[in-house]
Design brief:
Number of helices: 12
Oligomer: single chain
Largest sheet: 7 strands, mixed
Bound molecules: adenosine-5'-triphosphate, magnesium ion
Strand order of the largest sheet: 12-25-26-27-23-24-13
Shape: elongated
Strand content: 15-25%
Length: 561
Amino acid sequence: MNTDKPAVPSDFIRDIITADLAAGRQSRIITRFPPEPNGYLHIGHAKAICIDFGTALEFGGQCHLRMDDTNPSKETMEYVDSIKNDVRWLGFDWGGNFFFSADYFETMVECARTLIKKGKAYVCELTLDQWKEYRGIPTQPGRESPSRNRPVAESLDLFARMRAGEFPDGTLCVRAKIDMASPNLHLRDPVIYRIMRAHHYRAGGQWCIYPTYDFAHPIEDALEKVTHSLCTLEFEVHRPLYDWFIQELGFDPKPRQIEFARLNVTYTVLSKRKLLELVRDGLVTGWDDPRMPTITGLRRRGFTPESIREFCRRVGVTKFDGYTDIALLEFCLREELNKSAPRAMAVLDPVRVVIENYPVGQVEWIDAVNNPEDPAAGSRTIPFSRELYIEADDFREDSPKKYFRLAPGKEVRLRYGYFITCTGFTRDETTGRVTEIRCAYDPATRGGNAPDGRKVKGTIHWVSATHGLPAEIRLYDRLFKVEHPEDVPDGVDYKSNLNPASLNVVRAVVEPSLAQAAPGARFQFERKGYFIADSQDHRTPSPVFNQIVPLKDSWSKAGEA
Ligand code: ATP
Ligand code: MG
């Protein structure tokens, strides 16, 4: 993997904008990010945010944050607040340009009336099922609704009465009059207004008619004078309709829709509906569960805004749908935290070591470097004493040839400490687990070097048993156990692919300096990985850390390259 950061590479969106600016079609660009407030944002949205806000920023324009809230049934203010919070956290700023589609409802009614008056829309009486049947299939023309040629005055009257609440939900609708023979089904007289008695979290109960997304979106863009409306590829087939509305409603300047590929990531799902299901069914602890691909989940897990933006930069902007390896995101995080995270020692699976020739009650405070990548980070002192904890898997009774850690008769270096040689151990016969390891230390090796020049290959981390702090550490694995969890045969639920071992809580012992760790502080636990003090549960006397990523990626090659 190329680790240098080239200047932002160009892509087809930037090329289009550059050409539009050069040709004088616009003097300043305006983009927008239009989430529907029906769930929390996820890493796929982060890609769209980086493209929408990032492009505007790069070209000296502005990006609007717009709640695309034309479908009231699942929208809430909680989601609106979370969206603002997440976009801000990712590092983007909409200035004063925060909008609600719902605030344009009155204008949208006017737009529908304009189309009706022009003979370009009509009130239709087909039921939903009939409408689908009349619409037909792409290879054959559809059939015209019997209402299609009703007089303009009649449509205007019915539309007014729809709004006034005279008709039940789902009966009448307003349709654009375009082309029932178009090979593009979206142009076969699409619905632009439907009757739906639903409380809107912002507009309240004042509406019983709501515009469809296809009708609302171009109007919102045009009203905000958006120049480039960037969206995902599934909207490509809607573009002729988008352009038709802009044209027929006479908006000028005309926003231009450009599509890019959605982000799909391995080992997870990125559909708000499915993510909501995981939350609702209690399969995760909430939207901010550190295993979730949501921005709030990634934040709690310990990912930084920089690592997410860097991930999006590397994913780039293309027109092909494909999967991105989740390992790439982890790689971006490691790259960043390797430079910035202070080091600390934590023993995740502790076993006691007694250094039998070390004076009882003696404590030495040893210097430890905070970050070898950053001399300015300085150093701290850590206590060394007669009894320590090391990782259980840093000791083996029968050690293979290439095993350079602790084993009977073998010598290792304790990081920043002394050389120790194993002289014996005790095993619990019922569990088979080693409960105590006995060692002798060489007092001449303090700091990790022998004056006689003898070498030891292995260096292991440790924590003083007398001073160490018990801590809860949450180790995370992939949320799903397969790369493409949604690829399931008919009748099989994608949730059957959930990884039952995605969370493993361990009782660890950490060095005492971590008593001061603030919630949200990130560390590299030496030889283990990157960890963050949990933003919700971490307390000074009882620390709780989340594993962000292990040091090395054990899953895929992307992180190694
Ligand atoms: P979902 O399928 O998760 O409900 P959505 O497209 O309905 O997603 P919106 O809230 O409408 O969610 O999305 C807001 C914007 O984010 C849209 O412009 C959409 O194109 C973009 N977006 C959503 N998901 C992705 C993704 N996986 N990759 C890139 N952009 C995305
Ligand atoms: Mg959408």
